[in-house]
Design goal:
The complex is a heterodimer of chains A (115) and B (115).
Chain A: E1 4-7, E2 10-13, E3 19-25, E4 31-37, E5 43-51, E6 54-57, E7 64-66, E8 76-78, E9 87-94, E10 105-106, E11 110-114
Parallel strand pairs in A: 2-11
Antiparallel strand pairs in A: 1-3, 3-8, 4-5, 4-9, 5-6, 7-8, 9-10, 9-11
Chain B: E1 3-6, E2 11-14, E3 19-21, E4 23-26, E5 32-38, E6 44-50, E7 56-59, E8 62-65, E9 75-77, E10 86-93, E11 104-105, E12 109-114
Parallel strand pairs in B: 2-12
Antiparallel strand pairs in B: 1-4, 3-9, 5-6, 5-10, 7-8, 8-9, 10-11, 10-12
Classes of the chains: A mainly beta (115), B mainly beta (115).
Chain lengths: 115, 115
Amino acid sequence: DGGITQSPKYLFRKEGQNVTLSCEQNLNHDAMYWYRQDPGQGLRLIYYSQIVNDFQKGDIAEGYSVSREKKESFPLTVTSAQKNPTAFYLCATRTGGRTTNQPQHFGDGTRLSIL
Amino acid sequence: GNSVTQMEGPVTLSEEAFLTINCTYTATGYPSLFWYVQYPGEGLQLLLKATKADDKGSNKGFEATYRKETTSFHLEKGSVQVSDSAVYFCALTPRAGGSARQLTFGSGTQLTVLP
C-alpha cells in the first residue's frame, strides 16, 4: 500500500546477529502490526501496537522485540534468540480504535535470510 | 478462539473460467470478514470486505457474501484472467473485544490462471 514503507526489501543475517527491520507510515494510523509469513502458510502475528509507547506480544513474539517511540515508526528487531528467522516479514497499519471495522493495510514486506 | 479455514490449493484454471475459493470461519459474535490478495514478492492488498451478515463485498469482479448461517465467506469471480494469478487469503477480525482488532488469517490459496 502507498504510505507504508518497509526497508530493506531483502536482508541477510549472520548467525548470532541481531537485525532491525524498518516500518514507516504516513497514513496517520494509530495501530501497527508485524506479521511473519512462511512459504505456503498464512500470516502469524508477532507484535502489535495500538498507540505510541505501548505494544503487546502476538502469537509468536519469542526472539523478537519492537519499539513504538513515534506514531509513524514501528521497527522490528530479530534477535539471535530467534532460531529460525528466515521468512517474509510484513508490517501493517490500521486506523481507528478498538471498535472500528477498518481493514489493515500492508507494506510490501522484507525478506530475511540467514547466511 | 478464532480461526479461518480455506480451501487448499493450488488452484489452476483456464482464462475465463469461473472461480470459487471456499472460506469458513469460527468466531464468537459477529466478526468482520476480509479477502486479501498477494502478488508474487509483494505485501497483501485488501480485495473486499463485509462487516455484517448478508453483506456482499465486491471489487474488480470478485464477490463474497457473509453467510452467518453457514459461517462462510466464499470468494467468487465469474471470469478469471491471467492477471488474477496470486495467493488469496481469507481473514477475520472480531467485532467486539479482541485486542487491537487482530486479524486471523487462513493459510492462503494459490491461484494460477492459464491463457
